Amino acid sequence: MARSKEFDPEVALEKALELFWERGYEGTSMADLVAHLGIARASIYGTFGGKRELYLKALELYLARRDVVSPLSHPGPALPALRAFLDSYVAECLADELRRGCMVVNTAVEFASRDAAVSKRVAESWTGLETAMAAALVRARAQGEIPAGKDPHALARFLLVLLQGIRVLGRADPDPRRLRDAVDQAMTAVQI
Question: Alpha-carbon distance 148 to 11, whole Å?
């Protein structure tokens, strides 16, 4: 007869997310996971399939909780929504007292180029963000908020790079003036 689990896998996944987000993949050992999750190594393997699989599940949980793009799809003027969206990234970085940064950016920096599945998931996340910004910029151009000659897709790629840079600086050196000035300059570039 199979034994029932003596722990809640969702709670364990939440704890794993916290630990991976704070320490990264390489900085988290199986012993760390056993101690932090409060479950046996065999239970981690049996439930999640190992450290790498647990990390990917934690990354998916992180992504599932983040609905950062929906404010860009609301009807009405697009540029104020875009500005608020960019400002929200800065505010989130400045409020991150633990300086954990963005788990997607952390993942990309740490090992996305060494792991095809991780690279794919990071790229999908960034593509979704870029697509949402491009759609808002297409709407902004159609509403006359930005010049007709502007390429919304190129601008979205530019803003994607800006946002990931904000995330990196927010983790390393969250100077509010630097981050806010970058957003100001990006909005100027979008509109001229």
Answer: 50
- Distance in angstroms (rounded) separating the CA atoms of residues 184 and 43: 49
Give, in order, the Cα–Cα distances in Å from 88 to each of 21, 71, 139.
20, 11, 20
The yes/no answer on whether domain 67-191 falls in CATH 1.10.357.10 is yes
Give the pLDDT mean for 108-126: 89
Q: Where are the domains of the chain?
A: 9-62, 67-191
CB 90 within 8 A of CB 180: yes
Mean pLDDT for all residues in the chain: 93
Which of 24-38, 81-95, 107-121, 131-145 has the lowest average pLDDT? 107-121
| pTM of structure | 0.89
Judge: domain 9-62, CATH 1.20.120.1630.
no
Contact 63, 118 (CB under 8 A): no
